[in-house]
Amino acid sequence: MGLTEIRTAVKVDLKKPADQQPVLHTARAPLNHPSQLPLISITVPFAAKVKDGEIFKVECVDWTGGQIGNNDTADDMKNIDLTKIHYLSGPFEVEGAEPGDVLVVEIQDVQPFQEQPWGFTGVFDKDNGGGFLDEIYPNAAKAIWDFEGIFCSSRHIPHLRFPGLIHPGILGCAPSAEILAEWNRREAHLISTTELKRIVAQPPQPQNVHAGSASGELKEKVGKEGARTIPGRPEHGGNCDIKNLSRGSKVFLPIHVPGAKFSVGDLHFSQGDGEISFCGAIEMAGVITLKLSVMKSGMKDLDMKSPLFLPGPVEPHYGPSRYLTFEGFSVDEKGVQHYMDATVAYRQATLRCIEYLRRYGEYTRGGVWENEGADCVRLFRLPGLSDVKLRAYSGTCGGPGGYPERLHDARTSDGYLRFRHLAYGAGEED
C-alpha cells in the first residue's frame, strides 16, 4: 500500500461557485423514494466510487461554499445566504456496501489547502440564523484565523495562539426512503407543535438546493423532499460537530442504501464542545484523508441505533491547572428554576464563562471574542444528573496571561459596531 500514491477521489475548485460543482451537494436523499409515480429516483448522484478498505483523499470547500471572505468586515456574515450552506463532498459509492451493514470511517488526516491557510469563526445576526445566545448577542460578527502548522492565531483576537483539533463537522450516509419520510414526519410535527420562538427544525428547502450533477425534475425532487444537512439525526450521523473526530479516530455509521452514499464536509481547524454562536468552530476549506471499510451485517451485530466513534490519540493537552471552570445549574437568568434541564445548565455555565472574559478583559457586551474564544477552546461536562440536581461545567483553557490591550475594531457598512477586542492571553501568548 505504501508504494502507491493516495488518490484524490474528489477535487474541488476554490475559484468556482460551489453550486456549479457536481461533486458537491447540500441535501441528502435516498436511493429511491416512493411517490405517486413508480419509484422515481430522487437520489443525489454518486460523485465517485471507492473500494472497500481503500485509503483516499477528499477535497472540501468550507461549509458556506466560499461566502465568507478574508477581510475585516462582518457584512458577509450578516448577509450570508443560509439556503446556500453545508456543501458536502460526495456522495461516495462504497463497493459491497448494503443496507444493514456498517461503514467504518477511519479519519487519517485533515489539512487546510496550502493555497488557503486560513479560516473563520462567526456570529450570525439574530434575524439571519441567530444562535444559542442570539437574544443576548444579536449582531453579526466574525474573526479570521491564520494557520501555522498545528497552531492558529487571529488578527481580530490578538495575543491568542493555540493548537487546533482539526476534524470534519459532517460525515454520514444517506437515509432510506422510509427513514427520510420519518425525518420529515417527526420534524414537521415538532415545528407545528413547538411553543419556542425560534427555529427548532429544518424541513426540506427547495430554494438554492444543490443536488450534485442532478438537474431538472430530479433536482427539483431532491429540493422538495431531500433532508437538510443542518440538523444531525440518529439514524445516519450527519452534522455531528464532534471535535474528537480528529486524526486517528474511527466512526461507525449505519448503512441504509446500496453503496452507502457517504458524504463528508464542514471541515474545522478547531472547535470546543459545541458551537454556541452557530458558526463557532474555525471553519475552513481543506483535504481529508479517509479509509472506508464495510462491516457486513454490522447494524445487527452492534444492535446499532445511532453512530458510534472511537476518538483518536491526537489532541492538545493542558494541565488541570490551566482550566478555569464555571458551574451552571438549572436556574435560568430570570431566576426561574427548571427540573434537570441540561440546556439551561449548559447555557448558564456558558454565560458565566463569557461574563468572566468580558469583565476581566474589559470587552464590549457584543464582543465576538467572548463568544468565539470560548467556542474554540471551551470544554463542557455534565457531571451531575442525579436526584433533582443538574449541574453543568464549562471550562475555558488558559487564564489571564497578559494585560488588556485594544487592538482592533471592525464595523459593518451600516455603522454598527460588530466586535471590539481587548484581548489577553489564553491558551498561549504571542
Automatic annotation (TrEMBL):
InterPro entries named in the record: FmdA_AmdA
MF annotations from Gene Ontology: hydrolase activity, acting on carbon-nitrogen (but not peptide) bonds, in linear amides
Pfam families xrefs: FmdA_AmdA (PF03069)
SUPFAM superfamilies the UniProt entry points to: Acetamidase/Formamidase-like (SSF141130)
Domain of life the protein comes from: Eukaryota
Protein name (Swiss-Prot/TrEMBL): Formamidase
The species this protein was found in: Imshaugia aleurites
